[in-house]
Amino acid sequence: MHLSNITPGDIIIWTFVTVFICTCLITLLGILENIKFIQVSERYLNKLFIILMVEIASACVAYAILDINKDEKVIIELKKPYAGKKSAGALVLSIHNGRPSMLLVIHKKKDKLVVSPPGGIMEEGEKVEDTAIRETLEETGYSIKFKDKIEQSPYGNTNFSLVYSEIDTSQNNLNFDNPETIGFLWIKNPKIIPLQNWRFPEQREWIIELFDKYSTRYLIEIKEWKKSKTLSFNELMEKEEGVDDTLLALSKK
User: Fold this and answer.
1) Which residues cross the membrane (predicted)?
2) Could you report the per-residue pLDDT of 84-106, keeping only the tens digit for each?
3) 182-235, pLDDT tens digit by residue?
4) Is residue 77, in this structure, part of any structural domain at all?
């Protein structure tokens, strides 16, 4: 069995079998000794008992490690190539409360809320930027302007591309009708979104990297700060005082 396929359930079964065998062996030795069939030294029994305890302790540690790293395991499993239809989305940035923020769409997935950049399946004859513009309008009501094609996703859905886009947030015609989405939010730091609250968890790190890169570029373009050409995005993030209330509510659902 490959290590990436081991589950906490596998460890429980393996531990149960091992403990059962050791217990049966100790019991059998005790019975044989009682009927004077063999003579078992106390030292030997102590060794068996220690082995039994080590097996149980090892299983507990392994279970804890798998539980802690279950998010990484999800990413590994989702890095398989995707051969479905091509899709595209938009990395939409704007300034909110003096900080660069990214537009994310909120979706309902089973019993929880998840987020993703606006995007969807490309229709026949569409270019990547056409799909990004159309999907953003359908999912958020915002009209965006294409600026630059970024790249294809290196994880999971290999046919998914993102484009860097401009937006006019002064638009007040934000009526949208899409049964697949329940709203949208502007987030200043996507790193605080839990892995399980991303619609496509395997793309989380990629999107965060792009937000880092293009937020710095965006600040330079609009000259929001005088030192924007020398400040890195990580340095800007250190100025953050808290997180979005909307996201805090989202992560609790």
Assistant:
1) 12-32, 44-66
2) 678 888 888 887 777 788 889 98
3) 888 888 888 888 888 898 888 888 888 888 888 877 766 555 433 433 334 344
4) no
Distances (CA, A) of 5 to 69, 77, 232, 235: 13, 9, 39, 39
For residue 39, the enclosing domain spans 3-68
Q: How far apart are CA 4 and CA 66, in angstroms?
A: 10
| 141-to-15, 135, 137, 144, 176 alpha-carbon distances in Å | 55, 9, 4, 10, 5
Task: Write out the H or E segment, with its range, that includes residue 114.
Answer: strand 112-116
Same domain, 179 and 220: yes
Phi, psi values for residue 121, rounded to 5°: -70, 140
How far, in Å, CA of 128 to CA of 181, rounded? 21
* Per-residue pLDDT, 99: 78
Residue 221 lies in a domain: yes
For 109, 116, 125, 166, 167, the CA distances from 191, given in Å and listed in that order, are 20, 13, 35, 22, 22
Percent of the chain as helix, strand, coil, to the nearest 5? 45, 20, 30
Query: Does 74 map to a domain?
Result: no
**Do residues 112 and 54 both lie within one domain?**
no
Distance CA 203, CA 195 (A): 10
The answer as to whether 216 is a domain residue is yes
